[in-house]
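Re: [help] complex structure
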Amino acid sequence: MFWEAELANVGIVIVSHSPKIAEGAADMVRQMVGSSVRVAHTGGNPEGGLGTDVTAILAAIDKAWSDAGVAIFVDLGGAETNSEMAIEMLDDKRRGRVVMCNAPIVEGAVIAATEASGGSPLETVKRAAEELTPEA
Amino acid sequence: MTIDTDDRTIDQALQRRLIEAVAQSMIGHAEELTRLDQAIGDGDHGLNMRRGFEAVLADIDALAAQPLPLSLRAIGTCLVLKVGGASGPLYGTLFLTLGKEMPDVPHPADAARALGAAIAAVMSRGKSQPGQKTMLDVLAPVHAELLEGGEDLAARLKARARAAAAATVPMRAQRGRASFLGDRSIGHMDPGARSAWLMIEAVCDVLGG
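Output below.
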């Protein structure tokens, strides 16, 4: 059934400083993969200005949760630090199944979701996205 | 028994003054921190720190009444949840680790050990090291001074923090948003170094420097 496919595929979380960028990137991902992959997004600090919010990131991980794991895409420094903090705050069962992907937020999330929609495991999804990032 | 109670009361009063002093300093310098951050970052450091420490002040009664380690951890959690920028998890990690490492009634040696662990945790959280134009460039020298111990420690820690923050001006940023600016980050004090200096100064002023 379709909901079983949803639960089986890696979920995608998009974390931007800007709520609009987060929402727009999530829209682009959904256009690619429809409902075959769970996608959640969050942006803005706890007051709604530019920034990120650990509590909201935790909620997004929960919303995108799949037993196959969740791949997170971030824009700038604070989004990365706050997402790492959120991962550490997850319970033991979930913590090891959430990864940060070092990739451009829009392109990375789209490629990862496409990979995830085919049922690829978390490591493959992460690698597909990170291939977009030139070697430093 | 009476003496124990009295000691605890004094600890609580001191703890409250320490928390208030740090929080008021961050709130009072919010505009300055924001100006520094506008020069080389995204201009939100002052506002973010103010939001975090206003939340700390709102909870001051509970924070002052808890044993020091719990209080430090609660401050750390508060900063992580409220700040909204990279400084939230970074300062949050600093306070969370201090809380984990500090005994109820710390001696300077305990403080030095706890600060050392907290600096290591911040380095790991920010994937950064001293020399990259960050708060670590103040915290690490202050830690070194604290390890030396000796006379007039509070005043020496303040002087060391001031000099260390000033030393970030000619540095080239290698972490955080400022690193995008490359050489253009040279010539400005790092906002995180400034907020770390302010915190050290506030603590030392209360403890008698």
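The interface with chain A takes residues 42, 44, 47-48, 51, 80-90, 92-93, 125-126, 175-177 of chain B (CB under 8 Å).
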